[in-house]
Amino acid sequence: MATYTLLQLVEVLIASAILVTGVLLKSPSITLVGGGLLIGKAILNILAPEGGSVYRRSIIGYGFAGILVVGAIILVHLV
Fold first, then answer.
1. In this structure, is residue 49 part of a structural domain?
2. Which of the four, 22, 23, 31, 69, has the lowest number of CB atoms within 10 Å?
3. pLDDT for 16-67, tens place per residue?
4. Which residues form the domain of 51?
């Protein structure tokens, strides 16, 4: 198994653990952070066929997910 593949699997396990922890603690904010990390990872991999560096794809993927998570956390606290 390639090192990059192993790293991605570890990242997904950590993000999933954060998501499950948020659900078990009934904390919407923690759950949203875990989900946001998984969304960021998904976008990063969706952009892979386009090419470009992992750094560029990471900025786009995690940047978009970060904006989504911050907006969702604001909505959760307002409702």
1. yes
2. 23
3. 999 999 999 999 999 999 999 999 999 999 999 988 898 999 999 999 999 9
4. 15-78
Number of domains in the chain: 1
Q: Which residues contact 15 (CB under 8 A, 6 or more apart)?
A: 34, 37, 38, 41
Residues 6+ apart with CB under 8 A from 12: 38, 41
Q: What is the largest CA-CA distance in the chain?
A: 45
Contact status, residue 72 vs residue 22, Cβ threshold 8 Å: no
In a domain, 3, yes or no: no
What is the rounded CA–CA span in Å between residue 63 and residue 36? Answer: 10
